[in-house]
Amino acid sequence: MGNVIKLVKRKYKDDEPIQNLLSLIENDFVKVENLIKQQIISEVDRIPNLANHIIQLGGKRLRPILTLTCSKICGYTGNEHINLAAAVELMHTATLLHDDVVDESNLRRGKTTSHILWDNKSSILVGDFLLGKAFQLMVESGSLESLRNLSDASVKIAEGEVMQLISSENIKTTEDQYMEIIEAKTASLFSTSCVVGGLISNSKEEEIEALLSFGKNIGITFQLKDDALDYFGKKEELGKNPGDDFFEGKVTLPIILAYRRGNKDEKEFLKNTFEEKIRHKNALKKTTEIIRKYETIEDTLERANHHGKIAKDALEIFPDDPFKNALMKLVDFSIVRSN
Question: 25: which DSSP letter?
Fold first, then answer.
């Protein structure tokens, strides 16, 4: 038991809010980690080898942590939240494998991505395997409503990824269109991770709605902070190369705002840059200068802070307790974090 928690503490020694949450759900969290390890066992060697590679990279495990914590806020005393939390993390891990192939990413959390170590086909197929395992766990939980919500989230995530693919390199993507993308591809799993904790607790409708709002808005907050970090974060803290979004042609909020505010020459530069199949470091430098000129990082963070406040307000329906207070602090962390 102690080994798993020690590993998380070592990797996230500065992430106090996450540690606070882990200390409250330690026993359940260890059960989830062990269950995830059991799910990737297969006689086909490549499946556990590849799956173990991405799972052992760590990560904050926020989505299963949210499932466990939200079930506690709602007074759940059973064991099915373990299955659902593990299912949520397996879904998330599957999307990471797929994303790395689509984005042609070389690094994840500072390590070589699975599709580079093996190949694209293997990463996609192992991602599909993990999705199948996630749905098996959902069925075993016995909660039809949870299965329905997680299935809906799986569809939304896929829709969001396709929407992002369509908008890639499209400098005229609007802020509203971009928000729709991140609500689908990021916030939907955050919100569902929270909601299933309430569903298995037979919580009131208004409590389910509160968890939905909390999850959606903290998910948006995390994504907007990620957008900002890509242009001013440090490689050793991010676990990836700064500017990856830029080089992959992702038109994120800092770019959308810069294009909207830029003069004619700046707009033309950004348009030409994102229409190029390959973007170079010199173009990133000039793009960063435009971003700084129009303070689009600051405004991206301001929007993140706004959604963080909505997330906090959503929790006010619940009585004060250590779980609620820890989630409140997690919202603050989502805004000030450096990775």
Answer: S
Angle at Cα 323 formed by Cα 320 and Cα 327, nearest 5°?
100
Q: Which residues have a Cβ under 8 Å from the Cβ of 223 and sit 6 or more positions away?
A: 182, 186, 187
Surface-to-core class of residue 176, CB atoms within 10 Å of its CB (0-12 exposed, 13-18 middle, 19+ buried): exposed
The pLDDT of residue 201 = 95
Show the low-confidence residues of the chain (pLDDT under 70).
1-14, 58, 110, 236-240
Dihedral sign, Cα of residue 175, residue 240, residue 311, residue 303: negative
Using a CB cutoff of 8 Å and minimum separation of 24, what contacts does 174-180 make? 174/256, 175/253, 175/256, 175/257, 175/260, 178/251, 178/252, 178/253, 178/256, 179/220
pLDDT digits (tens, 9 = 90+) for 247-268: 989 999 999 999 999 999 999 9
Beta strand spans in the chain (E): 107-108, 111-112
The enclosing domain of 183 has a CATH number of 1.10.600.10
* pLDDT reported for residue 44: 95
pLDDT digits (tens, 9 = 90+) for 265-299: 999 999 999 998 889 999 999 999 999 999 999 99
Indicate the number of domains in the chain.
Answer: 1
Give dist(CA 212, CA 190) in Å, integer: 9
Eight-class DSSP state of 111: E
Give the largest CA-CA distance in the chain.
61
Contacting residues for 147 by C-beta, under 8 A, at least 6 apart: 135, 138, 139, 141
Distance CA(62)–CA(195), nearest Å, equals 14
Count CA atoms within 13 Å of residue 261 on its CB side.
17
Residue 151 pLDDT: 95
- Rounded distance between C-alpha atoms, residue 129 and residue 131, angstroms: 5
- Give residue 32's domain range: 2-336
Please state, as a whole number, how many other Cβ atoms lie within 10 Å of the Cβ of residue 68.
Answer: 28
